[in-house]
Design a protein that fits this description.
A: 115 residues, Alpha-Beta Plaits, four-stranded antiparallel β-sheet, two-stranded antiparallel ribbon, B: 411 residues, Rna Polymerase Sigma Factor, Chain: A, Serine Threonine Protein Phosphatase 5, Tetratricopeptide repeat, 22 helices
Chain lengths: 115, 411
């Protein structure tokens, strides 16, 4: 078994219409339950907008604190799911369904193997 | 017997590299390790065969030797416990098959090898890899071409191609792209990715997208080899057979398609005596065989169109009817318009062409220019030829268009 990150890339800007958002959340909830039933689900979470971020940078043995996102971008990490599955095909299958449910692009990225 | 020379080993290399890598990848669970073991086996062959003679089954000898080498190395390197653990991490297949370490057993039988070759093919053509990477990996691992040969064929520096292959294999390992034939439900999609790779090799061999020469004979030959291999592995898939027929029929006209001075000769002007009759016959027979199954996919239909062209005088209405069976992509619509010109005349075809949008391709202005020329609209034809010439990447195609343009301007 191997861990994969399913990262949800979300455009910066206002949230979709409440009705649309509600449907997306319901679809994602149903999908999470399916992942849990299949034993693939490890962890998931939605993130606040990058406006809420604080960045810490090492600087000469000290740490510099800045307000705001690490990089200003059109899209940001909006949320993620971690799945534990046998191989990439299985991760891609969950990723495909996450893309359809969230209506957002999903990046599937393997974790380094734990030693 | 002594007197065997290196070319024998080279021939066996091309013939059996892919199948040996396929078997070893399953045993070792890693493509790099498999390639290393197979290459070592070939080095041994270069040393031994001139002395001992070529073994009765050279391909089987290579697989067995590569496997024994890999197992020897595992034994050597696993004498210390930590190394042993590292090895098992590296070669997870051995976790389930530790018996291999003590007894390698007889060489794998042909059915098992067949499955391994299919697995390797589907891994090389996995949708998580970029299309250009799929082509390079397939030519390297399944076709046994060297990195230098592939780089040369696609006109990129060898270092670039080497890096592309290294990165691809690293992704297969890191992302755990599975080494298996896809499940029935995924097969149509996954198979079409495999077919697309062979088709791309074929079209690049038929009309190089850039460079001086029109044809890349090496790539045409490779497309046929891959096409034959696919048809051998999946004889019941009509599209696989259709693709093989298509690459054979296209290649059958190779000698007629280029004039002695390197110029392109379009189909209606070709000297049919230069067509390869054996390839034509084989291609036509395959077209009949797959169409009998009644599941005509795009490759079968394209092959059928080529089969009609290979049986002059061309039944133009049949060609047009076949184009109507293809999914109407812009390129298909453009080729269909060419067929319309033969049936209903250039004016009807031009009306279709004017509606198409194919940015960055020289094909649309080239077809448009030819239709305008036939309609006697010479000034417009000249302008369209100019547009096509500016976009054509292949020197022979460009020269052909320049010649046609001169004809249109002078008329």
């Amino acid at each position: 078994m191997a861990l994969y990150l399913l990262a949800m890339h979300q455009p910066v800007g206002p949230a979709p219409e409440p009705a649309v958002l509600q449907q997306v959340m319901a679809d994602l909830d149903a999908l999470r339950e399916e992942m849990q039933a299949a034993g693939a689900w490890v962890f998931a979470g939605g993130l606040h907008d990058p406006d809420a971020s604080t960045v810490l940078r090492p600087a000469d043995g000290d740490v510099l604190v800045t307000d705001g996102p690490y990089v200003e971008a059109e899209e940001h990490l909006g949320g993620f799911t971690i799945v534990d599955v046998p191989d990439l095909d299985a991760a891609l299958a969950w990723g495909r369904r996450t893309a359809l449910a969230s209506t957002l692009p999903i990046e599937v990225r393997p974790f380094r193997e734990r030693s | 017997m002594p007197g065997v020379c290196v070319p024998d080993v080279e021939a066996v290399f091309r013939e059996s590299y892919g199948r040996a890598v396929a078997v070893l990848t399953r045993l070792l669970g890693d493509i790099d390790a498999a390639e290393e073991a197979v290459q070592e086996a070939f080095l041994t062959a270069v040393r031994r065969w001139p002395v001992d003679g070529v073994p009765p089954s050279p391909a089987g000898w290579i697989v067995t030797t590569a496997r024994n080498r890999a197992i020897d190395r595992l034994r050597r390197e696993s004498t210390r416990a930590d190394r042993h653990r590292a090895m098992l991490l590296l070669y997870p297949a051995l976790l389930h098959d530790t018996a291999l370490l003590s007894d390698p057993g007889p060489p794998p039988e042909e059915g098992a090898v067949r499955d391994d070759r299919l697995r390797l093919l589907f891994t090389c053509c996995h949708p998580a890899l970029a299309p250009a990477t799929r082509v390079a990996l397939t030519l390297r691992l399944v076709g046994g071409l060297t990195t230098a040969e592939i780089a040369h064929a696609f006109l990129v520096p060898e270092a670039t191609m080497a890096q592309r292959l290294v990165r691809a294999k690293a992704k297969i390992r890191a992302a755990r792209i599975p080494y298996r034939v896809p499940a029935e439900a995924d097969l149509p999609d996954r198979l079409s990715a495999v077919l697309a790779v062979v088709y791309l090799v074929s079209t690049e061999g038929h009309t190089a997208s850039s460079g001086e020469r029109l044809l890349r004979t090496d790539l045409s030959a490779e497309a046929i080899r891959l096409g034959r291999e696919l048809a051998e592995l999946m004889p019941d898939e009509p599209e696989v057979v259709g693709l093989l027929a298509l690459v054979l029929l296209v290649d059958s006209r190779r000698a007629a398609r280029v004039a002695p001075d390197g110029d392109l000769v379009p189909l209606p002007e070709q000297d049919r005596r230069l067509w390869d009759a054996a390839l034509v016959a084989e291609g036509q027979q395959l077209v009949r065989r797959c169409l009998r199954r009644g599941a005509p996919g795009p490759y079968q239909v394209q092959a059928a169109i080529q089969a009609v062209h290979s049986d002059p005088p061309t039944d133009r209405r049949q060609v047009l009817a076949l184009y109507d069976l293809l999914p109407p992509t812009p390129v298909v619509a453009l080729n269909r318009a060419v067929a319309v010109a033969e049936v209903d005349g250039p004016a009807a075809a031009l009306a279709l062409v004017e509606r198409l949008d194919l940015p960055r391709s020289h094909l649309l202005p080239a077809v448009r220019a030819d239709l305008l020329r036939r309609l006697g609209r010479h000034a417009e034809a000249t302008a369209a030829y100019d547009a096509a010439i500016a976009l054509a990447g292949n020197a022979a195609e460009r020269a052909f268009l320049v010649r046609r343009r001169a004809g249109a301007a002078g008329a």
